[in-house]
Structure formats: structure tokens, C-alpha cells
Write a structure and sequence with these properties.
Blueprint: H1 3-8, H2 31-34, H3 68-169
Length: about 170
């Protein structure tokens, strides 16, 4: 198959259309997998999350008076929510640290994977270089083989000549 046929995929059987080979410059990198979110609920441009907020008390659109019981109750709820807000702030800070740690591990792993891929290419280059070197030796080995065949034929011919000489003498 010629290079043009390889490039245009002409002459390939229909069952090999999804298979690619490194030797022909193909790849198995699916951009949808590469860009797939790490979690279905993660925030990204496609999934902006929700725009919900927290609201303990309803918004007062009109001014009003509060009695002592209402004011005391609101003060108690406000004190409780202030403490919960402090704890929520601590929790979100910890969640952010977890995300940062996860991201550091992710980046370190991807650097490792890139190193593995780089070193695999170095190894394959060495293999290809060795294969080319071995192919270059084939003609010399063929010459050596022909030379050995010629030597064997000459030796066999000489042995036959000696046998014939000995038979003639005896």
C-alpha cells in the first residue's frame, strides 16, 4: 500500500477504521475523554453549578415594628447563625485546601504520565534505531552466508575429489 493510500485510508478494510497505529502516525487520544470533567457535578463552563444562596430570614420589603419576643428570638437565631457561619467558613476553607491538594496530586500524576510517555518514545526510538542497524547488517550476513556455502561446496568438492583419488589407487 502506498503512502497516499495510507494517508487517505484507501484500501483499508472497514473493520480497521477505528484502529490506529503509532507506526502510521495515528493516535488514541479522544479529546472528549481528555476534557471530560473529573466529576459529573464539578464546576466548569458547561456546568456552572447553581446560583442558590443561603437566606435564613425572608427579605423585609416594608418597614415594620418588632415586639420583644420577636427581637429576642431573632437575636438568638442571629447568634447561632453567626457561629454556624464561622464554622461554615472554616469548613469551606478546608474543602478548598482539599481541592488544592487533589489538584497538586493530579498535576504531579500528569507530569509522571508525561515522563512515562517521553521515556517510552526514547525507548521506541532506540528500538527503531537498533532495528535499522540490524537491517543494515543483513546484506553482510547474506554475503557471509554465501561465502560459507561456497566454502562448504568447495570443501565437499575437494572431499569428493580425494575420495575418487583414493578409490582409483585401491
Amino acid at each position: 500500500m502506498g503512502i497516499l493510500a495510507r494517508i487517505t485510508s484507501a484500501g483499508k478494510s472497514s473493520n480497521n477504521t477505528n484502529q490506529s497505529s503509532l507506526s502510521t502516525g495515528g493516535h488514541g487520544i479522544d479529546k472528549n475523554q481528555v476534557l471530560a470533567p473529573t466529576d459529573p457535578n464539578v464546576i466548569n463552563p458547561v456546568n456552572a453549578g447553581t446560583w442558590e444562596t443561603v437566606r435564613t430570614a425572608p427579605v423585609n420589603h416594608t418597614p415594620r415594628y418588632f415586639n420583644k419576643a420577636e427581637a429576642d428570638a431573632l437575636k438568638q437565631v442571629a447568634t447561632q447563625k453567626k457561629e454556624e457561619a464561622r464554622q461554615a467558613k472554616r469548613a469551606y476553607k478546608s474543602l478548598k485546601k482539599l481541592e488544592e491538594a487533589d489538584a497538586q496530586v493530579h498535576v504531579a500524576h500528569r507530569r509522571y504520565i508525561k515522563g512515562v510517555a517521553d521515556n517510552e518514545l526514547v525507548k521506541k526510538r532506540a528500538d527503531a534505531s537498533t532495528a535499522r542497524h540490524l537491517h543494515a547488517q543483513r546484506p553482510e550476513y547474506a554475503r557471509l552466508g554465501f561465502g560459507l556455502d561456497r566454502a562448504e561446496n568447495n570443501a565437499q568438492k575437494r572431499v569428493e575429489e580425494l575420495k575418487a583419488k583414493i578409490k582409483d589407487k585401491y
